[in-house]
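Sorry, any thoughts here?
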Amino acid sequence: MCENRKILVIDCATSGIAGDMLLGALLDLGANAERVITAIKTLENPAYGYSHIDIAVNEVMRGGFRAIQIDVTSTDTEKRHGSELVEIVEKAAAEICMSTKAREFASKVIHTLVNAEAELHKTSFDNTHLHEVALVDTAAEILGCAVALDDLQLFEGKIHSTPLAVGGGVIEFSHGIVPVPAPAVLAILQSQNFPFHGGPIGHELATPTGVSLLVNLAAKVVRFYPTLTPLKVGYGAGTKEFPMMPAILRLTLGMSGAQEMLHNEIAVLETNIDDVSGEVIGYTIERLLAEGAKDVSIIPTVTKKNRPGHLIKVIADKKDVNRLSNIVIAETGTLGVRVYYCERHIISREVLRMDLTILGDKQTIQVKISKNAAGEVIRIKPEYEDLKQLAEKTKQPLRKLLDLAVYQAQEKFRKDQ
């Protein structure tokens, strides 16, 4: 099964983020506007307390750039408590036709928002007053973004974000005058360990709803764009306009240049020896492997004074460097061990037990299965010791058993797919 190679980059390092900006940018990327509007209209329900919801989607200009702006209003002005807003979002999400991941995302976002407010004001979840984010636009932006992301199939891709710009200066709201970022924004960023920076202008650039959406979307924060082939760029505008910069959020949708491989960091230990016997070298290999080395190689070489020697190379986990270095020194008498660290790209591997039919009888052996990033089997390797025992037991050639084991394993995986 092929991996979804879509990559979305949320570029909020200059513009900051608000819920309406994100939703507008998703619509500009190609999310179905009718689906989004229908989803938001679900809130127009007496049970939720919202009435006469108006939704306007317009193309606007910000600093010479075209962007999409969505504006959601309602005649209802009653503020909601935290638990009420959570119930509204989750019940409305259950009524909307969208994936389970989209519903879970909407629930996580509203819980992030309410939990941050509750922690900030040291109140219970049920009694949390949301003040500026308790009107219809909060629920509308959360549900609208969930539907738009679902429509673009972005829950199956990778989502990155640049560090968030929060602006600067001070803002005045129900609790008085406070510095930027707003306390709720800072609480949300703190709860998710999400990096941010001030500026680039002295205005508020990040809203609690926008930040709640962001921290639940971005799986990775990057200073620079990852390698990708851009497919489309979306621009979303909010209600604010600044003379010194375009107040628009940019989303870049692309495809990864190549399917990523698994990778980890390993240590490579090396030393040159020219006065150690073959028996000692052989024992050193056995001991290093028994003590956790991933691999040991012996390479013939010529050392100083034109003496023949050997290069011992050990691949190990970083945590085992000191212990394995001491073993190399103790066993070979070398005066030092070189250590360097490097990234290793690997494919996923798993060991399975399978039944092999030999001369009408079932025999169980272990098989190593290697798969690429797309999940395709690229190599099947039966365990040598198992085949060796089987060859001795059945009196069949090892080569024949090896071919038979690979063939039967391939047939098994072909049927399972």
User: Anything to note?
Assistant: DSSP finds eleven helices and 18 strands in the chain. The chain has three domains: 6-256, 262-346, 348-416.
